[in-house]
Write a structure and sequence with these properties.
about 400 residues, alpha/beta, FAD/NAD(P)-binding domain, seven-stranded mixed beta sheet, six-stranded mixed beta sheet, globular
Length: about 400
């Protein structure tokens, strides 16, 4: 009897956990190595678009995510002082994309993914490094403080500053600053209801989204030099920058504690990798294609990566050909989305008043003349389709060749 092939996943984030689940469903033995002592996701939300939900359908988790949907009515995009640029309903989004956005706390999603893995599959507090990417005839080697681990496949899911990517492609340019900084926080929902929205202001964006558990996830960005910090507190910085924006923004700022505000410079991988694999090692998520959050696709693309990878490296198949097929499927799609996210970021971070006025007029006019046009503009991203059972690999799950 052939021994079950073993995959080591470096990184216990959303992409790594999903890849581990998908590989295990395809027949692999899987070990996830996470550097942190425990999986404690930062206090922020994540939006799962219909494409990400369909990918989770392959793993039997899509409906559990959809049950957490909070948005049932009006929403859309607003200008800095409150004027609606685009009004959107959840049923319109479903008609355009075959589903609606599900906003949930990252901790909720991580808990859902961890529960789908055997307890012994996840090892925390382990510093892992790629010692040898392996070849067609030699297994890969992952080094840890407790010794080396040989693997038939290594998945680099170690984020934007991926050490695995650097080991595979040492000459490739590192991620660069996108020109803006992001803040995120979660607070109890205010007493007075509000419609979910994203607001485009001068040099920045604000988003306010309800969560199923009665809290609100808020995120905002602003054009700033890289590496800065508020002279007093990040809450005070947000009040200076967004305190005079429309309701409910001032109320949310009043409710947040300074220690609950997360601040991060936004970076992205502007130079795409020619391939997402080398030897027996493959990259998923931000390690492969870090992008700005402007389209809300970072986590969704990592989840897509996982299910596409699991098909292409089905046990018993030619691993080299499978990894080449994975790269061929994922590089064009993710490169396009990285570039589209960067373009969207430039549009939403304009600082010239005439340019902002022209942008807002264009968006609102397009929405009025051609209702649903804004939703349809994202359809090539969100209408991605999941695997088909008719071409599934072992255990009845996997994705069809060529699905990107």
């Amino acid at each position: 009897m052939n021994q079950q092939p073993h995959a080591v996943v470096i990184g216990g984030g959303i992409g790594g956990l999903t890849a581990a689940i998908a590989l295990r469903e395809s027949g692999w033995s899987v070990t996830v190595l996470e550097r942190a002592a425990s999986l404690e996701p930062v206090g922020s939300g994540i939006g799962l678009a219909p494409n990400g939900q369909r990918a989770l359908d392959v793993l039997g988790l899509g409906d559990r995510v959809r049950a957490l949907a909070a948005w049932q009515g009006d929403g859309g995009m607003r200008a800095q002082h409150g004027r609606w640029l685009v009004r959107t309903r959840a049923d319109d989004a479903e008609a355009a994309h075959g589903g609606t956005l599900v906003m949930l706390h990252r901790a909720t999603l991580v808990d859902l993914l961890v529960a789908a893995l055997p307890e012994k599959a996840l090892r925390t507090g382990v510093r892992a490094r790629l010692s040898d990417p392996g070849t067609a005839t030699r297994r890969a080697v992952v080094g840890t403080d407790d010794g080396d681990i040989e693997a038939d496949l290594v998945v680099g899911a170690d984020g934007i500053d991926s050490a695995v990517r650097a080991a595979l492609f040492p000459a490739h340019p590192r991620p660069v600053y996108a020109g803006f900084t992001a803040w995120r926080f979660v607070v109890p929902a205010p007493a007075e209801p509000f419609a979910p929205h994203e607001t485009w202001g001068r040099g920045g964006v604000w988003g306010t989204q309800p969560l199923k558990d009665g809290r609100v996830y808020a995120y905002c960005t602003a054009r700033l030099p890289e590496g800065g910090r508020a002279p007093d507190s990040e809450k005070a910085e947000l009040e200076r920058r967004f305190g005079d924006w429309h309701d409910p923004i001032p109320r949310l700022l009043a409710a947040v504690r300074d220690e609950d505000v997360l601040r991060n410079d936004v970076r992205h991988l502007t130079a795409p990798l020619a391939a997402h694999h080398r030897g027996r090692v493959v990259l998923v998520g931000d390690a492969a294609h870090a992008m700005t959050p402007s389209l809300g696709q970072g986590g969704n693309q990592a989840i897509e990566d996982a299910v596409v990878l699991a098909h292409h490296v089905a046990p018993g198949a030619d691993l080299g050909a499978g990894l080449a097929g994975y790269s061929a499927a994922r590089v064009p799609r993710t490169t396009d989305i990285v570039r589209r996210a960067a373009r969207a970021a430039r549009v939403t971070h304009l600082t010239s008043a005439p340019m902002i006025a022209a942008r807002n007029t264009f968006v609102s006019t397009a929405a009025r003349i051609a209702p649903g046009s804004v939703l349809r503009s994202f359809s090539t991203i969100t209408n991605w389709r999941p695997p088909q059972a008719s071409c599934a690999a072992p255990r009845g799950k996997g994705v069809c060749p060529g699905v990107s």
